[in-house]
Amino acid sequence: MNFKQVFKWGLLAVFILFFSGIIISLSPKFYNIVVIKDTMLFYLGAILFIGTSMYAFLFPEDIRFSKMDLPVVAFIFFTIVSFIFSSSKSYSFYYLAIFISYFVIFFSARIFLNEKKTFDVIYFLLILVALLVTIYGIFLHFHIDILNFYDDPETIKRTPSTMGNPNFFAGFLILTLFPAVSGVFYFRNIILKVSSGFTSGLILYSILLTRTRAAFVGLLAGIIIFAGIFLYKILSDSKLKEDFRKLLKIFIPASLLLIILIFFIAPEGYWNRLTAAINLKSVSTTMFRIYTWNSTLKIIKDHPVFGSGVGTFRVEYPSRKSKRIFMFEEHHNAETIHAHNEFLEVISDTGSFGMLSYLWILITLIFIFFSVIKRLKNLRFFFLYLGIFTSVFASLANNFFSVNMRYVSSGVTFWILLGLIFGLMNLNIKSDTDSVKAAVRKFSIIFLVISLLWSIVIIPKAVRYYRSDKNLKTAVELSKMAVTANMRGSLILSLYYYEVARGYYIKTLKFDRNNVIANYFMGNLYQDAGELMRESERFNKEAVEIESNIKMLRTAAAKEIPGSMRRVDIEKKINDSILLLNTAKKLLSDLKNPANAFEKSIEYYNVVVKNSPYYVQIHYHKGRALRNLNRFEEAITEFEMYLKQNPVDFEAYFILAELHRKTGNQKRMDELKEELVKEVNEDLRIFPSYLPLHFTLYKLSISENKPEEAERILLEMFKLPDIHLNKGFDRAVYLLYSQYISSKQFKKIDEFKKAYLFNNLKTFE
């Protein structure tokens, strides 16, 4: 083996190592650490950038370029231009690094993987990785977590495999399904043929297990593309008709069997989930997407030429999002970070020129593909080309409703497949070898210098990104535990978790001091801690109980034999209790008083405002902190800013109305009420069964001391078809019973049971 082969296979080994790691995730809990995959992508991109540049300099005769590469180069150029004009450089640089890595992977696949040996290795690796993550995904469907990635696999209803999200897993499966099908025809080895067929079946089954509607669109589009081009080849090539007829006898029955099989193997509720997307008057992601796309068009309108900057959608979106969007999504979407449509996000990020170059890539692929397969006489390679070509466009159909291209597992796979098919088809295109060789040698030195400079910047940043994100994930989990502890009645345990979380937030900000999410949650931590500090009586009571329990445990330990299991267990409980109390006291000691905690929260919120001025939620929480400091006028300003960007947060309406009451601005209170009623009625006209709107009217009636009106609103709610969803029924019953009990109208409780529970059971089934 000569130096050239060692060099090429060395880069291939690096490629295999990182690609497998990015897809599979090599350690438990890595699926939950977003940046670990990104970090591996940055390492891979940097190594391949240097390696490809060196290879081009040493062996320019092996490098083939053609007009096929021009649209990709144009897309790179306009991605970089969008970064230069970006509205948020910190977010843009992160996504620029991701896209640079994608482009490097594309060109590496284009250059290195067009020889049969290297190509077969990567092609088999792709199918093998798909097989492994698919098997794990199927295990998870049956609540078997063999790698212990998930805390409670029993709660998993849509299998996410190692991706942490069923939508991301489905996006990867769509990309690998058709290459796996083509492997049945491409590989000569019977074991590889059977493996490809087996993997294809498992991938198809797993797509159904993810219950992802966008993936179903991609699957349907892929089947149509695959079958359509297959028939096109039959009709256009008379010499191969006989061979195709033989295949057709297998293909048609197999396709019919597959369609029938899909109906039988689809998990329970799959078809209901698909049909639910058509209902535009329900809590669904369909209307959520339509409203999100409408907001994305506003970003495009404001940044039509070069875009707002690669990766800045999450910064630009909040100030433009539709005020109706909350009605059609079950969770809070003020912080939506993607457009849920790849094409719209490309144009919003990189502008018209970026989108045109992106379409140029796809159109070039279509034209070259059909020109190549017209002349192609080898059935094996026809199916190979067909599988990869289908996967690219099936994925794009999937991403018309999804964001898998922004997730590295799907993104890496997409650009590898694009590089593979461009490289393979480039072998069929004539080029001037001598002129290309001279150009490659000339420019490879420039690219080598650029690649070295890029690596010097991105590798240390990748390490910092990973460390920052790892600590942030732990901190956020601890913050949630603190909230839960307080809800369950333990103030000291809540303060304990906050203090431990604070340490992880500090570590996070050490590696990424402008991290918007870390500063946001750190501000929330100080604000929540400040509010807990006001409950000094409750703290003292709990502290006395813990100290008393420690004394009892010490007495019990003294009676046990030193070194016995019983004594060791008691001493551990003593140490845990002491640690719990001392940690909580440390937080209180550091903060000194509630006002100081609120001031600290504002400091962190200001960092968020500086780095992400359109981060809408920050004004709500900063307003809370200012209200806690009795700085009412400043708090009013923050809540007014928040409601301009998020006019349907009715909780904010009530807080703002209370602030105006304290400052004696009755006129603005009346205006707010009118705005609130107007918004609610308009929303009810669009979505009459949306429960939070009815609860808002109820709360408004209670605030105005109108119990009869409040009762009427609650009773009307029980006639709504969706009252049983999301604990709406339980909440309404609780409020109604509380109202009857407080007003001592006990007979009405029995009347309600008879009228609404016993006579309308079908409503609640």
Characterise the protein shown here.
By secondary structure, this protein is mainly alpha-helical. It contains 29 helices and no strands. The longest helix has 55 residues, at 433-487. It has helices spanning 3-24, 34-58, 70-84, 89-112, 116-141, 166-186, 190-210, 213-236, 241-265, 270-276, 285-302, 313-316, 342-375, 379-398, 408-426, 433-487, 491-511, 516-533, 536-558, 565-591, 594-611, 617-628, 632-645, 650-662, 666-686, 691-703, 707-717, 728-742, 746-758. It starts with a helix and ends in a 7-residue tail after the last helix. Helix content is 76%, strand content 0%.
Residue windows where pLDDT falls under 50 for at least 5 positions? 26-33, 761-765
Helix-strand string:
HHHHHHHHHHHHHHHHHHHHHHHHHHHHH
Distance between the termini: 71 Å
**Percent range for β-strand residues:** under 5%
Number of extended strands:
0
Q: With helices defined by DSSP (H or I, 4 residues minimum), what is the helix count? A: 29
**Main sheet, how many strands, which sense, barrel?**
none
Question: Strand pairing plus helix content: what structural class?
Answer: mainly alpha
Radius of gyration over C-alpha positions, nearest whole angstrom: 30 Å
Task: Determine the mean pLDDT.
Answer: 83
The gross shape turns out to be globular
Helix percent reads: over 70%
